[in-house]
Amino acid sequence: MLKRPKSYFTQAAREAASAVRRANALNRTHIAAPEIFVVRRTSFPDPFAWEIRRFGAMVLDRSDTGFSSIALARAAGRTALERMAVT
Question: What is the pTM of this model?
Answer without folding.
Answer: 0.63
